[in-house]
Each structure stands twice: as structure tokens, then as C-alpha cells.
């Protein structure tokens, strides 16, 4: 039986699906205890301290040819490597277009800072 994340990603192009799963591996390696939820309406996979939207600290958003790793309180995180993009009041994201970008310096540190901000 498929898991909810796999079901959610099934309709995306194989390269986007694979990229999203690789980003998920990175997130789960830093946040193994995080609550994972699939939100089909928002087209995201979210991670946080619990099931409520207010518990979320980051999300994966598959797009047509890329995958975003977003941070719910991205404007409150230090970003010495300038990885975070966006103009919203709180949200920031990193756009991945290839698996090679997942090894970019500073990603694990950003997830660790988000984890600390989320009070795990």
C-alpha cells in the first residue's frame, strides 16, 4: 500500500517526484521526530511539532519543474548563505531544480535553526 506522501506525489512528473522525495529525505534527516502532513489543497507536505497549521515549521511544495522547501518563519531565521527567497511577511523558500542542489552548503543548518525555532 502506498503512503500518503507517495500518493500525493504520484501525479507529478517523475523528475519532480524524485526531487521532492530527496528534499523529504533531507528534512527527515534533520527533523526525524517532526509530524508530517500532506495538504492536497495547498499542494504541500508540511513538517512541524504537531498536526495544526500553527505547529508547522517547514514545507515541501512540488511545482511543475522544481520543488520548493519553504520555511514558515523564514524571515526570522539567520541566512548567512543567502539561500532563502521570497517577499512575504514570514514565509521564505529555497527552490530546487536538480538533486545536486540539495547538497548546497547551509541547508542542514537552516533546517536546524527552523527546528530550534519550532521548539522541538
UniProtKB/TrEMBL annotation:
Record-linked SUPFAM superfamilies: YdhG-like (SSF159888)
Source superkingdom: Bacteria
Gene source species: Larkinella humicola
Domain YdhG-like: 17-113
Name listed for the protein in its UniProt record: DUF1801 domain-containing protein
Family matches, as InterPro entries: YdhG-like (IPR014922)
Amino acid at each position: 500500500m502506498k503512503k500518503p506522501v507517495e500518493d500525493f506525489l504520484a501525479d507529478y512528473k517523475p523528475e519532480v517526484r524524485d526531487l521532492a522525495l530527496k528534499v523529504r529525505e533531507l528534512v527527515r534527516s534533520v527533523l526525524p521526530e517532526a509530524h508530517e502532513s500532506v495538504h492536497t489543497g495547498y499542494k504541500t507536505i508540511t513538517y512541524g511539532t504537531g498536526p495544526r497549521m500553527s505547529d508547522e515549521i517547514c514545507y515541501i511544495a512540488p511545482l511543475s519543474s522544481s520543488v520548493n522547501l519553504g520555511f514558515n518563519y523564514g524571515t526570522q531565521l539567520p541566512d548567512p548563505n543567502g539561500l532563502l527567497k521570497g517577499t512575504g511577511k514570514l514565509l521564505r523558500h529555497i527552490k530546487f531544480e536538480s538533486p545536486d542542489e540539495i547538497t548546497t552548503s547551509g541547508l542542514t543548518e537552516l533546517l536546524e535553526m527552523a527546528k530550534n525555532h519550532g521548539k522541538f
